[in-house]
Amino acid sequence: MNITLLGASGGEVTGSCYVLRTKRANVMIDCGLFQGAHKLENHNRLPSKGALTKLDAVVLTHAHLDHTGRLPLLTRFGYRGPIYATPATISLTDLILRDSAHLQSEDVKRENRRRAEKGRPPVEALYTTRQVEQLRPLFKKMKYDQAQEVAPGVIVRVIESGHILGAVSLEVTVEENGTKKVIVFSGDLGPRGAPLHRDPIPFKHADVVFMESTYGDRDHRSLAETAIEAREAIRKTVEAKGRVLVPTFAIGRTQLLLYLLAGAFKRKTLTPFPIFIDSPMAIEATTIYRTHRELFDEEALAMAKAGELMNQLRTAKMLPKASDSRALATRPGPFLVMAGAGMCTGGRILHHLVNHLSDPTTLLLMVGYQSRGSVGRQIVEGARSVRIMGKTVAVRASTHTVGGLSGHAGQKDLLAWIGSMASSKPRVLLTHGEDGPRGALRGLIQKRYGITSEIPDYQQTIEL
Questions:
Q1: Domain with CATH 3.60.15.10 in the chain
Q2: Residues of the chain with CATH 3.40.50.10890
Q3: What's the mean pLDDT in 69-91?
Q4: pTM over 0.85
Q5: What's the CA angle centered on 348, arms 93 and 226, to 5 degrees?
Q6: Backbone angles phi, psi at 265, to 5 degrees
Q7: For 375-404, what is the mean pLDDT?
Q8: Does domain 2-218+407-463 correspond to CATH entry 3.40.50.300?
Q9: Read out DSSP for 263-321?
């Protein structure tokens, strides 16, 4: 019985992927894409030998690309087994993978044009839309808090993780040679008390815990402070007839921002102004959110049922067509545009950055984690210029980071989550975090609970 880490380890946050092996079964937990620095692109492959050639099942914690983005590669092994996930995760995963395949196709076309000019050989996309479509018949729905055998001797129970719609933590019970092990995978944990999404639910017992540590070194600012500061920055930009650019993750963050803006308009702390959702994926994701309102927290559910969300967002417009997006290049402010990708690694936000990043009246509102090597990270760290789509773009826009809207739990919430299992003295392995955050969390877990956490490396195999 062992688990091999094929991502989100060795100091990296993205690429979450675990392979659980027993004498009777091979089960993959998540199959995420590495994002950020170009050096990580070589990791976006899967081993061509070993357990992956005879997988029995795949289980997903949630739909984000860094947890699902390599799933289409399984088709190369001829994988036709089940992919287990919650209903909302299934819908969102299909959406994300279709978008990923499309963006890869467009990126490869641009890259190959540059290569042709230099006489270099062409490159291929990691996968195609066709490979994404081949996954659809494989998805199997999982119910919350209901044990389900996904492979011989491997039973999974999922509960709310509070990260995005449909996101869960996993309790995996494995039996082998008369020995039973309870292995918990946190997935991505959301902060307690955050708007829109329900709070994460902790487990009470575990033998082994694989735990995310993205913000293990700090707590987020309070939502109240964050909302006031962001609101003030937006208000000033709107009054100056500037543009607010929001590189946002299409799933989770876009819907949260719309919810908060609706609340601000309702309370009249902001005067309604034009809002553009410049992302086909975000538009479709918002529809999926409406379909699964039962997963909202109580306040959001009440607003949705009363029709207040739609009523307060009358100035919001969806831009599914690329031509509508391009029209914003010459549209005068004020307006706010949300566009992907959240780390400025691709998507329509790149065009808005090229057009408006050099304008001092522009506000760049950062509302999510920026991985090392990404354009977003460079801007947050104060770069005077950045390279976008082969161009050098001066950074003269003001930048405001909204840490309190993170979809990840901060240090306090992470400690509380693992604390609920501390009495069982589990073996704790910290993943999904850079070296600084997970090292800080490791020290606090030791100090508070007397548990020495492990910090596994990429491709390391953990013997259970």
A1: 2-218+407-463
A2: 223-405
A3: 94
A4: yes
A5: 80
A6: -65, -40
A7: 93
A8: no
A9: HHHHHTSS----EEE--HHHHHHHHHHHHTGGGB-HHHHHHHHTTHHHHHTTTEEE--S
- For CA atoms 295, 301, 306, 310, the dihedral sign is negative
CB atoms within 10 A of CB 122: 11
> What pLDDT, on the 0 to 100 scale, is given for residue 331?
95
Largest pairwise CA distance in the chain = 70
Q: pLDDT tens for residues 293-335?
A: 999 999 899 988 888 888 999 999 999 999 999 999 999 999 9
Sheet holding 154-160, edge to edge: 148-151, 154-160, 168-176, 179-185, 208-212, 427-431
Average pLDDT, the chain: 93
Closest Cα to residue 67, out of 320, 419, 402, 407?
A: 407
The DSSP output letter for 200 is: P
> Both tokens of residue 144?
């919350």
Cβ atoms 255, 316 nearer than 8 A: no
Q: For residue 279, give every residue at least 6 positions away whose Cβ sits within 8 Å of its Cβ, in sequence order, or none.
A: 248, 250, 254, 319, 338, 339, 340, 347, 348
> How many residues in total does the chain contain?
464
Q: What span, in angstroms and rounded, lies between the C-alpha atoms of 52 and 67? A: 17
* CATH architecture for segment(s) 223-405: 3-Layer(aba) Sandwich (3.40)
Helix axes 435-449, 411-419, angle to 10 degrees: 50
Q: What pLDDT is recorded for position 76?
A: 81
What is the β-pairing status of strands 385-388 and 391-394?
antiparallel
Tell me what pLDDT residue 283 has: 94
